[in-house]
């Protein structure tokens, strides 16, 4: 069997299923503009990267033209594979950046699976969450244009996969019946509690479990992931607790939303605003994965804040490591955290409440170990890598089997427990 993955910066969410299929003799090809990690045996074919139009600083306001162009470039590569005798048996790709848009025009009889990560809407999600930034007509129009690429793709793929129930629910009702809630999985064998773990700070200090360490991690330190709220809460905690250290992993770029209006990094702006003591505040940059895991293993309180948006891998990995969780009461976090059972939830905007929960957690309350154990069990039972990958593989193989029988008008169905990683 030959599967082609399509991802702008891959393999991304497809790394685990790609490894699984190749271990069973499948041939796998990745079509991407760039790669985020090497995967032995995965053939990579690159298509050129045309950047969004100049002046598009907001993720939701980017013009759709570059994504249409990406779809055309991917289509040309698929056509070449088809003509050269390397036609894929299945194509699986992210639908948000246009690469999957013309797959069926090239390969009308090949099953296609779309990864449905996020559908933009002017209410109920990330857009409009910050009430100080009202959603105007121009932004609403931009959202509709961005979604046009996804809708054109959803209309033709055989099925879609979305990592959480909430992310699935963002898509129009007309398409939800062909989307399954299926997370790609978390390697809980790699992300696990370790009472002997150590984390070395840039100044040489060696931290171990039990040290008063508050952690925060995001791809980039920006408002979408609650970085300002964390820093303001950390400043409150720092004044009351002179021995607490704050370890912050993430870059100074902007993955989502907008850069600061003054042009500086959010890190510099917030350090100046909050007056956090620099000798106890460590900015670690974007850590290698093994160091990020060690960071979670020594954490005495891990803070995860987010707009209603895509759920972060790092959040689930922190839970798998048994880190005590203080998280925002936003979707889809509330799909994972049950207040008082496997973590604590705070109002995203309530800095005092976040600070209080950090301090309470650092105080080692009696229920802390129970919540740490429950956090890991949540990930093991609902997001465990082996089970999630097997369910995805089962879905893909049944799609191929259905295609061969000629019945492709409906998504293959089986009992939800055998399809959905999240019990949907």
Residue ranges: pLDDT <50 for 5 or more in a row?
52-57, 408-424
Based on CA inertia axes, which overall geometry fits? globular
Outline the biggest β-sheet.
Answer: 7 strands, parallel
Number of strands: 17
What share of residues is helical?
Answer: 25-40%
The chain-level structural class is alpha/beta
Average pLDDT rating:
92
CATH superfamily of the largest domain: Glycogen Phosphorylase B
End-to-end CA span: 29 Å
Quick synopsis:
The protein is of the alpha/beta class and about 425 residues long. About 35% of the residues lie in helices and about 15% in strands. The longest helix has 21 residues, at about 385-405.
Q: How does the SSE layout of this entry go?
A:
Elements: E1 2-6, E2 9-10, H1 15-23, E3 27-32, E4 34-35, E5 43-46, H2 65-83, E6 90-94, H3 103-106, E7 112-115, H4 137-154, E8 159-162, H5 165-169, H6 173-176, E9 179-181, E10 199-200, E11 206-207, E12 213-220, H7 227-240, E13 245-251, H8 266-274, E14 281-285, H9 289-298, E15 301-304, H10 313-320, E16 325-328, E17 344-346, H11 351-362, H12 368-383, H13 385-405, H14 416-419
Parallel strand pairs: 1-3, 1-6, 2-4, 3-5, 6-7, 7-8, 8-9, 12-13, 12-15, 13-14, 15-16, 16-17
Antiparallel strand pairs: 10-11
């Amino acid at each position: 069997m030959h599967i082609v993955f399509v991802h702008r910066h891959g393999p991304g969410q497809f790394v685990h299923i790609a490894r699984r299929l190749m271990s069973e003799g499948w041939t796998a090809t990745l079509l991407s503009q760039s790669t985020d990690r090497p995967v032995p045996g995965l053939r990579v074919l690159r298509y050129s990267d045309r950047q969004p139009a100049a002046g598009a600083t907001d993720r939701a306001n980017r013009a759709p033209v570059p994504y249409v162009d990406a779809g055309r470039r991917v289509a040309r590569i698929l056509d070449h594979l088809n003509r050269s005798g390397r036609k894929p048996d299945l194509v699986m790709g992210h639908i948000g950046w246009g690469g999957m848009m013309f797959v069926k025009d090239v390969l009308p009889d090949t099953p296609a699976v779309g990864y449905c990560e996020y559908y933009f809407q002017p209410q109920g999600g990330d857009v409009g969450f910050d009430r100080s930034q009202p959603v105007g007509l121009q932004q609403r129009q931009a959202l509709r244009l961005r979604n046009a690429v996804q809708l054109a793709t959803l209309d033709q793929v055989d099925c879609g996969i979305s990592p959480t129930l909430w992310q699935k629910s963002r898509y129009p009702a007309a398409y939800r019946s062909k989307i399954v809630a299926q997370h790609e999985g978390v390697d809980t064998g790699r992300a696990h509690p370790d009472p002997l773990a150590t984390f070395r700070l840039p100044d040489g200090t060696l931290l171990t479990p039990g040290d008063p360490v508050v952690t925060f991690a995001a791809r980039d330190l920006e408002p979408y992931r609650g970085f300002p709220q964390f820093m303001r809460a950390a400043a409150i905690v720092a004044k009351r607790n002179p021995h607490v250290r704050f370890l912050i992993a993430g870059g100074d770029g902007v993955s989502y939303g907008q850069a600061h209006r003054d042009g500086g990094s959010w890190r510099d702006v917030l350090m100046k605003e909050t007056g956090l003591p620099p000798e106890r505040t460590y900015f670690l940059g974007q850590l290698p994965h093994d160091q990020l895991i060690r960071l979670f293993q020594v954490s005495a309180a891990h803070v995860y804040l987010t707009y209603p948006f895509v759920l972060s891998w790092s959040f689930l990995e922190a839970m798998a490591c048994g880190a005590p969780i203080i998280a925002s009461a936003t979707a889809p976090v509330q799909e994972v955290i049950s207040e008082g059972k496997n973590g604590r939830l705070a109002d995203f905007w309530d800095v005092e409440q976040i600070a209080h929960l950090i301090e309470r957690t650092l105080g080692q309350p009696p229920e802390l170990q129970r919540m740490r154990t429950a956090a890991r069990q949540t990930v093991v039972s609902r997001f465990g890598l082996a089970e999630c990958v097997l369910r995805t593989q089962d879905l893909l193989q049944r799609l191929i089997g259905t295609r061969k029988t000629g019945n492709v008008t409906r998504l293959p169905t089986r009992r939800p427990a055998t399809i959905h990683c999240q019990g949907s």
